[in-house]
Amino acid sequence: MDRLAKLFCFAASLLLSTQYGWSALQTTSYIAIHNTPKYANLSAMPYANPHAPKGGYISLSGKDTFDNLNAMNGKGSAVEGIDYIFDSLMKNSLDEPGVMYPLIAEKVTFDPVKTKFVIYHLNKKARFSDGSALTAEDVKFTLDTYQTKSNPGLQMYIADLEKTEVLSKHQVKMTFKSDSNSEMPLILATLPIYSKKDWEKRDFTKVTMQPILGSGPYTIERIDAGRSITYKRNPNYWAKDIPLNKGKYNFDRIKYVYYRNLDVAFEGFKSGQYTYHEEYMARKWVTGYKFPAVNSGLVIQQKFKHQNPATTQSFVFNTRKKPFNDIHFRQALSYAYDFEWQNKALFYNQYQRLKSYFSNSELEAKGVPSAAELQILKPLLSKLHPIQKQGVLSSWKSPVSDASGFNRENLLIARQLLLKAGYQYKNGKLLGLDGQPIEFEFLIFQESLQRTLMPFVRNLKRLGIQVNVRQIDVPQYIERMRRADFEMTTNALPQSLNPGNEQAQFWGSAAADQAGNYNYAGIKNPAIDEAIKLVINAPNREQLVIRTKVLDRLLRSGYYQILTYGKGENWLAYWNMYEQPKVKPKLSVGVDYWWSNPVKANKVTQYLRKQ
């Protein structure tokens, strides 16, 4: 390095140290939280076919209906697939947890240890779909809007954001309230960026069916209100040639067709009304795919094994209401759930019992706490109920039945737990601590859930508890969940290999009082709040794993939910008209990297015309 270059480097480092204080600032073409990026210098992602042809279509199903194209304000029923019209600052790798690569932002500057701020350096070529430039002003407008007008869950998710500043036309700086939230650059980089000009005369807080201007790979082509929406690939998409997008977004059209329930949707799939279906029901996966198109090879079934935590399916107790505010009652009810019989009799042995909120991953707590976990747990133990304290320190396990269908031993344990806690029986009915018979409502929106709920309901009846299963439509269900207007319900919660701020939304005390947030159980536990903070502020991957295991132990032993069943794979069915890259991603099916085979598509078309 010559003398002039050395002087320039010294001046640059002096400027940074003067402006921001001495720190380990780095400017990179990626964000990597607790990980080392593997693909920063590749011209295309390894799970992509850069030479994949463009053309054809893919169609999927949507649930019930939609009335809002703005998914970020939390109003109404947001439409499926709307993310296709937007770009974010950076995009997740489908192989590496906590790693993002350039999109709108081509570089990022921040200190990964003392993360007080982040500067995104925007790609000067970034454009909205109408050809107008995407600038730092649009990014600031978007973040400012999210902070004040988005749904409460999102506002809480980015609550550590203090302010957003425009440094230049293509540089934007976000400053944080804390200086140790290393996940914030990643969180902000995932959010869709809106056009400031597009919203000058529009109200962000209102439900809208007026198309929104975005910078993504697709635009809205057609809306059949409440029934279907079709997206059309933008041939002039500004980012089609960047490494992350090579071989991606190959379909000319993506369509979502809406159905009132899953059974009707499946019939639509069988008749070719849509072409790609993800199956969630074991019975249907095993017995429902016997129709002619499957037998002739025109419909393919495929299992995709992923390396993400299994989706946490559960029965949720609303601890804001009696008797679910009593941990003794919740613990007793956990013995009434008979997974072993259900898996044998109803699920064709396709599922595993969930024993963790992070099953199928290294984040799952197993056995008794390690020395490292105990070091974190000891200061928290005094804040725990004795039942929770005992569960945290032991090798916690879900009750196991003999799969006979009677569940006699576990129901006897449940009965003894209730009597010991002060509950009484009169004329075969369980009386609460207030002396009144216990009766509650189990709220659902899917008719198919009745079949899997009834064994649990029957077991509760044997315990003297009257349960009324109430099915309502999706919009009403969404609204009641927003207001925590339920007693028990089901939930399916996806988790991440890189947990962070979202854990406060799921389990934090503040979220329990916020309408529209995701702490459905109403958990208010200072020990869990402290564990969440530790997860968010984990300095490295090793500590993140340890701290997440602590959080897992606290959640399980609090009996806020009954963990039910899950699987570490996706069940896919699709009409045989698509091709996939040879290398599959580890964390996602990666449908956006598939492409259409015109010869196969023609065979499918000819077959459907004859039906």
From TrEMBL:
- Per its UniProt record, what InterPro entries does this chain match? Peptide/Ni-bd, SBP_5, SBP_5_dom
Leader peptide range in chain numbering? 1-23
Recorded superkingdom: Bacteria
- Report the residue ranges that make up the Solute-binding protein family domain in this protein: 101-509
The answer to whether UniProt assigns keyword Ion transport to this entry is: no
Q: Which Pfam families match?
A: SBP_bac_5
PANTHER family named among the record's database cross-references = ABC TRANSPORTER PERIPLASMIC BINDING PROTEIN (PTHR30290:SF64), PERIPLASMIC BINDING COMPONENT OF ABC TRANSPORTER (PTHR30290)
Protein name, per record: Extracellular solute-binding protein
Species this protein is from: Acinetobacter portensis
